[in-house]
Amino acid sequence: MPVAAVPRYLPVQEFTKASPSLRFGLLLSIWTDASDQERQLIDRANRRSGEAQQLRQALGPNNQNLPRVVEQWVRQGELPSLWTKNDHAGREAWESVCRLEQGDRARMQAIVGRMQAIARAIPGAQVWHCEAEAVSPFTTGLGNEHPLENGFSFLNPYGLPYLPGSGVKGVVREAARQLSEGQWEDSRGWDRESVGRFTVRQEGEEKEVALTALEVLFGRETPEGESDHFRGVLSFWDVVPRIEANALRVEVMTPHQSHYYQQKPDAKSGGSATPHDCGQPKPILFLTVPPGAKFHFVVTCDTARLRRVAPALLEQDRWKALLDGAFQHAFDWLGFGAKTAVGYGAMKRTAREQRSQENKTPASAGQPAGARPPAVSSEELIWEKATLRWNAGKRELSALASDGRSVALASQKAADEILQRLSEEQRQELQGKKKPLPGCRVRVLKDGNKFQLLGLED
Asked: Is domain 379-456 annotated with CATH 1.20.120?
């Protein structure tokens, strides 16, 4: 039967522990080989039917005629030929590809936490971040090389699904362009007014180039031969989704007009190469991240360059307000990843993020160009050695900071999600014995004088 191409020095059992990337890529086992042909033929011979009895006679004692009978059945189309896709093995392979082990989910969480810590540690940079939830399946990298001709983007060396930062920047830049050009009633603060300038030396002369907010933040490209390019001050980070489910998802697209795409008249479709609905459907499987996955977007700003070029965007964090508006437009109308035109990659801010946004005043279409949004007071903090307590009556989880004064709360569904991150022993201590759990490292959102418990930090 088909097996994964595991090296001889690696036990086949270890294949189940491989990353999703390896299970989907180099080690995908959906092809028919000689042993698989023989297994299928012997399975038919073991059935209780007249055909099976005749087949057993043809195979002879101890299946000595097996190679000859296999060749005959392949010629008759009763068995798949060598190195063609095997549907039964394919189903088993897809189940293996989609499965997410506990270690996979732990790595997703660890990578997100590490990226946040690195972003905060960059000297001279400001950080913007946002957490969104997929409301439809998400996929990307379908054009990557793969035997099935439908690839998927995995982050090496971890082998986990991810959305490249370049893809995030492209979508958000398009959202900002649409808003700045007045294509929507609410521009969310974006316009075509000049907010900065930089100097270009060309042929011994200096020339000043005016820049809009779009060009300052995302960069300015000019026609070939000109030299007044400008690199944007924002850097968009790769996004590794945190998948709550225990598996990825397989989706199906079924084109009905392959004869038209390939311009090959098909007798079954009337001998016509023109598009019509009588073509032969061809189901094509591809890999997706299921709805409900959390995407944590991180953007860093080179404040030193921004201060030199467009200091007005630093006043009261105006660049963050503009970025909020562009991301919100992308969530509402554009989507991320591939196949967004048919609904894939749709996202919305998480409930926690929406509550944080309610405390901000977004730039509106009616504001004058010089208006500035107020400063944002909310920020994420890490509490070391916090003490957790569980209130069963209110279904509320509280974290007491090490100073003994500050308390952060999480209730209902948010509390349940945090409890799932704890070990069975820790949950028994909290919920069963109703004892406090000290020495926890937690992430909280400070909003003025209030604290909200967001989650646990590894």
From this structure: no
Q: What is the DSSP string of 306-355?
A: HHHH-GGGGGGGHHHHHHHHHHHHIIIII-SSS-GGGTTT-EEE-HHHHH
Task: For residue range 6-25, list pLDDT tens digits in order.
Answer: 666 666 566 667 888 888 87
Sign of the dihedral defined by the CA atoms of residues 140, 142, 144, 148, in that order: positive
CATH topology of domain 102-182+236-248+289-358: Alpha-Beta Plaits (3.30.70)
Sequence spans of domains, the chain? 16-98, 102-182+236-248+289-358, 379-456
Burial bucket for residue 141 (CB in 10 Å: 0-12, 13-18, 19+): buried
Average pLDDT over residues 198-222: 86
In this chain, the answer to whether the domains covering 102-182+236-248+289-358 and 379-456 adopt an identical fold is no
Q: What is the pLDDT of residues 188-200, one digit of tens each?
A: 999 999 999 888 8
Q: Which residue has the tokens 């299921």?
A: 290
Q: Cis before residue 157, ω within 30 degrees of 0? A: yes
Average pLDDT over residues 38-57: 84
Structure confidence by residue, pLDDT tens digits, 424-433: 888 888 888 8
Give the helix/strand (H/E) hosting 1: none
- The pLDDT, as a whole number, for residue 195 is 93
Q: What confidence tens digit (pLDDT) does each residue in 368-410 have?
A: 444 444 444 567 888 888 999 888 877 788 898 887 778 888 8
Using CA atoms, how far apart are residues 352 and 414, in angstroms rounded to an integer?
A: 9
Instruction: Give the 3-state secondary structure of residue 22.
Output: helix
Closest CA to 417 of 346, 352, 348: 352
- Sort residue 183 into left (φ over 0), alpha (ψ -120 to 50) or beta: alpha
DSSP string over 88-145: HHHHHHHHHHHB--HHHHHHHHHHHHHHHHHHHHSTTEEEEEEEEEESS-B---TTS-
Buried b (16+ CB within 10 A) or exposed e, 404-422: eebbbbbeeebbebbbeeb
